[in-house]
Each structure stands twice: as C-alpha cells, then as structure tokens.
Backbone:
C-alpha cells in the first residue's frame, strides 16, 4: 500500500504552474511566479475569523531578472520534485529535498543549491504561491508530541485504538492529513504544553476517566500537532482546551495553536483552531489555589526600572500589543503578570497532590467553563 | 490497575537506608550517607565490560556537619517521597518532586528547597547511593523518541502490536521497565539518530521488510531510549546497530548508547549496550557511495592552524582521546574526518534516491556485517 494518497488538487496546481511557465516561454514572455508577500508588514489578524492571515501585497519572481534567475530555477526544480513525490505517493523531509536537488548545473561550474538556507525559503514560496500546505506538497517537518484518548484512527491501513496504548501513546508524525478518524468517544481535546504534564495525565488515566483526547505538544507545537488539533476539532466537532504554563511563552504557544503564527500566517486557516480556549495556568490560579509559594520570579527587569523591561517582562508586554491578545481579559491577565512579577508552571500543581491537576483542577475548570478567551 | 508495579527490592533499599539513619540517631551517632564520587576523576572505562563505570572513591554526607546538614535533610525528604511513590505505584517527574517537597521548614523561616538545582543533584546522589536507577525510584525524565517494528509489548495491560501503528509509531515514555515483551519477530534493533531518518524508514516500511525494530532517538537519546535499547537487546537477544550522522556529535551519541555517558556513568550497566555497532555514516561511505558533493564542511578551525582546533575539529580530537574510542578503526576514522575536514549526514543518502538508504545502504552493510566497533 502506498504511503500517501495522490492528491489530484495539488498535482493540478503544480501542473497549472508548469503549463503557465511553458506558455510564457512559448509566447516569448519572461516566465514569472506571483506570491503573497510574507514579511510582517503583510501579516494581519482577522478578528472575524480569529486567525492570522496574509494581506493582499504580492510580489513577482521573474526569470529574466538577474537577481531572480537563481531562485526562479530553484523554484521550478522544487515544484517539479514535489510533483514527483505526490505522483509516487512518497514524502520527503525538507533536508532530503535539499540533498535530492543539490547537483551541479550541467555546463556550469555552479550548484543548484548551496545550502538548505537556499531551499527552505523557496519551499515556503511555493506553499504560499500555490496556497498548498507543505504537507500537501508531501514535505515533512520534524515530528514531536504524542496522543492518548478515546479515538480510533486509521493510519496506513492500520487501525489504532488510542485508548489502548498504555502510558506510551501514539507518536504524532509530521503529516496527519491522511489519518482517517474511524470512531471516537471524546468530550473534548486537551492540548498540554509539557511532555511531563502529558505523562502525568496518562498516569492518572485522565484521558479514560474524562473521555478526553490528550495531546502533549512537548513545547512549541510542531506542525503535526497544530494540524492534528485543527483536524480533530473540525471533524469531531468537539471543543479544544489548551493547558500551558502561566508565562508569556506558554501564552504564546496558546496563541499559535489558536490563531496561527506570524511566520506561517498563510497557513493559519489549516493549522489554527480559533475556538480553542486557555484552561490555565492563569494568574488568578495563584490566589485561588494558594500557589504563591510555588511561583517563580519573572526573569529580567520590570518596566520603569533602569534597563527594563527585559526578558519575560518584555515578552509579556509584547504580547499585550498583539491584536489577538487585545481582549480585555487578556490585557488584565498580562498586566497582572507584570505587576506580580511571577510565573506559574503547570507542574507547580503537584505541590497540592500529584493527582490534584487531574482530579480537581482540570475537571472543575471544564465543568464551570472557566477559560481565558 | 496501578500504573507501576511495586518494586520490593528498591523499597527494601530505601527502608534499609531509613533504618540505618534511625539506628545511628538512637546510638547518638551522627547519621550519614555514603555514595560513590561522581566527578570525572572517578569515571573509568572498563574495557572488559565495555562500559563507563564509577571508580571506588566514596564520599560521606553527615548530618552533624554545618556544610552537609541542608542537603542531608533534602536527601531524607526525597528518599521518603520516593518510597511513597513506589508504595503507591505512582511516578513523578523530577520537577513535580521538587514542587511536592518545596515547603517551609516548620519553626524556621527557611524553605526545604530553593530551586530544582538543589533537588536534582540529591536525586542523583540517591540513585548512586542506593545503586538504583532513577526509574526504580519512580522518577521520570523527559521523553523523546519513537518505535516501529515486529514487536508486541504489554504496557499497563494494553497489548500493543508495534507493527500496526502506521507511520506514527509508539511514543517512547521515560519509564519502560514495566514493558512486557510478549512476542517478536525481529532480526535486530536499529537505533537511528534523527527523527527524519526514522520517518524515512517508516515510509519505506523498512521495519516490516527487514524485520527490524527501528527506534528513532531524535537527537541525544533520552533515558527511555537508552534503557529500552538495553532491555530489548538483553531480553530478545538480538543485535543492536546504531545509525548516526557521520560527525563527532553523531559518534558521541553512538558511544552514549554503547558505553554510557560520563555524567551517568553509575548507570551504564542498566542503560548501555556494549555490543552495539555503528552502521554509519562513516568517512569510508563518502568514497564508496560517491557522496563527496553532499558532505558539509566541519565547523571551526583545523588543528595546526592559528586558533585551531575549534568546534567540530576540537570535538573530533577529544573523542580520539576517550578510552572507549581507542580502537584502531576508530582512531583511523576520526583522523580521516579531521584530514578530510568534512561531515556527512544520514539524510545525504537521499541524494542517490529516497529509498537508497532502506533498499541498499542498510541491508548491504548488515549483510556484510560492515560496522565500526
């Protein structure tokens, strides 16, 4: 059985691009690509859909332009290789892609690619130009994260019951678009920031007792984790709750899962889950659950002090300025963090009891629907 | 069903320690711990067993010593908490352990622990003093890595067929001592350095076609990956091959899996697999498979040049001096790397064909038993 199914839509996009270039050549025009500008000036937050998107600015890459010719050649090479991958139902990492395409240009003493720093941006160019996720081009990213819960899925013809994977769980690959969700009995999806918290919940059998699909992102979520969260939410139609450390970095992880990230803004509609809610940790938790003595000091210098704001303080104030943190409750939350000068980790809940997080903290918050927007 | 089984041997060790301390108190002696010195001066390579071990140097920690009293108190706290964990058949991350034990000492304005930098070394002290793996104390480390292959194991009562996990695979947890290996049909265990190479082999169905248990360590191997490799090798009695990038960092990963690491030398006998062999990448591969143009330059300054050796060069020459790299073939390999001034990545094999690594490179080397020792 082939690894990935052929995707006629993406093949069609790539074929269309190729035909367009050939037509231009036949008509003695300089062939060109057009693609949305990806710089921050063209990244916008759309409050309607709740995601980061690219604006209307476009730029052209023209073959008959001495500054563009090399990347133009690279773009055609990569587009052609991606078409081959899809046709052959194979995938490749962007590192493998680089090695596959690195060769001497016949007749010239020049390499097609000098390093992956040349091929990576061209891959992203293609993704935006074609409006096709990297995964649709059959290019893989690094995997991380794992999953537990009342979900049966089909992966390469194997039927996997994610409730019967002990405390190990399913490793989440880079490409999850080919998963078939066969059956589920889940009330919601819970994405947790740290691997250790995922392990805690698995040990407590939280996923079984609460009928929850628990995804542990192990830090900044991989594309696989983001896409899987999006797909599960869309197809299973159950809510997504995110559980991070109570610090600017955890809250940014939340926003990436919810609204998308700035450098992949063009893919938010396929990677983000705008209806996701933050379950914790919050600054309010510190008082409510009497956690003051297990907080940690924010790193860096507070605002209004000489040299400040720096490090954690600076990051918290940056978040405050992002449009997707403009909600009143988020402004208050971030102000409170800066004023208190502390952060609170997920694992600090262990100071109550190991099982406190699974028996009390999470179920109570979910029952009362006590979330940050 | 409980998460982990009670381990009478470790409980006995902890009980014995407690009784010893109480006896000393009853006899009006100053209670003390004794443990092997863990500094590099006491780390030895044992060519007989092929692993790094600790030498005979011991040091004492005495309660009635102003410099030891605080860590003594912390050691007793942690030992007591570990006993509780084992009795309750629970585990905790070392971060949770820290949070569980951080409190004010009654009657004093002092915390038991000020930071995890205080509790972590005490955990390692206990491990060495008791000659008990951290996993036996039910303390978990960060997980990473995944597994594919013809192996059926039992984890928490769930029977998992690792040949039927699609391209996702089993996520490898921190504690694998409780795995029951029910059945297998594997010829060998192949541990690969990068996640992307693990994904490549999964896509090629290498694990199915070659009856191989493929473990992807995703960089520096976690304790779970090291322990699992050791356990699989010991219990299944099949060879272990390691597949890393051809650079000093990849070779060090190999040596950690094979002989143990310097800072966990006291645990080598439970974490290392001395009979493991390196399958590649080697400097010889570059010529044999015509990979010269997909090598990368070593970083840093070569020896004998001003400012050299630095970075990759320096690391390669450091490896040369380690006793566990003293084999003639390793000395040649490292000399060759420094002389050629290049490194070669696993994924560079994609420059031939994506399936070259799975159809040609690995099977040929295994058939010819072409390994570095």
Residues:
């Amino acid at each position: 059985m082939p690894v990935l199914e052929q995707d006629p839509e993406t093949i069609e996009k790539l074929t269309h691009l190729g035909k367009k270039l050939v037509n231009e050549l036949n008509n003695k025009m300089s062939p060109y690509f057009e693609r949305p500008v990806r710089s921050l000036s063209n990244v916008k937050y759309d409050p309607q859909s709740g995601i980061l998107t690219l604006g209307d600015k476009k730029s052209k890459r023209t073959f008959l332009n001495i500054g563009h010719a090399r990347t133009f050649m690279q773009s055609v090479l990569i587009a052609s290789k991606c078409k081959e991958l899809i046709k052959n139902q194979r995938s490749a990492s962007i590192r493998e892609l680089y090695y596959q395409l690195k060769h001497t240009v016949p007749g010239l003493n020049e390499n097609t690619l000098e390093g992956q720093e040349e091929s990576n941006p061209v891959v992203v160019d293609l993704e935006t130009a074609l409006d096709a996720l990297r995964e649709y081009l059959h290019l893989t990213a690094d995997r991380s994260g794992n999953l537990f819960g009342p979900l049966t899925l089909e992966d390469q013809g194997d039927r996997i019951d994610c409730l019967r994977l002990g405390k190990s769980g399913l490793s989440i690959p880079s490409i999850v678009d080919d998963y078939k969700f066969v059956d589920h009995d889940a009330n919601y999806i819970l994405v947790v920031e740290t691997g250790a918290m995922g392990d805690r919940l698995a040990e407590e059998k939280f996923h079984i007792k609460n009928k929850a699909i628990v995804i542990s992102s192990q830090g900044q979520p991989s594309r696989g984790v983001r896409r899987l969260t999006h797909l599960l939410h869309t197809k299973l139609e159950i809510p997504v709750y995110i559980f991070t450390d109570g610090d600017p970095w955890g809250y940014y992880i939340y926003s990436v899962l919810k609204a998308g990230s700035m450098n992949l803004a063009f893919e938010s509609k396929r990677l983000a889950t705008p209806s996701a809610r933050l379950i914790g940790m919050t600054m309010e938790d510190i008082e409510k659950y009497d956690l003051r003595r297990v907080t940690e000091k924010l790193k860096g210098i507070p605002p209004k002090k000489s040299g400040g704001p720096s490090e954690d303080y600076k990051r918290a104030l940056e978040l405050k300025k992002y449009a997707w943190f403009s909600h009143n409750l988020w402004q208050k939350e971030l102000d409170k963090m800066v004023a208190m000068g502390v952060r609170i980790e997920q694992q600090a809940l262990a100071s109550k009891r190991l099982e406190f997080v699974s028996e009390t903290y999470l179920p109570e918050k979910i029952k009362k629907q006590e979330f940050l927007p």
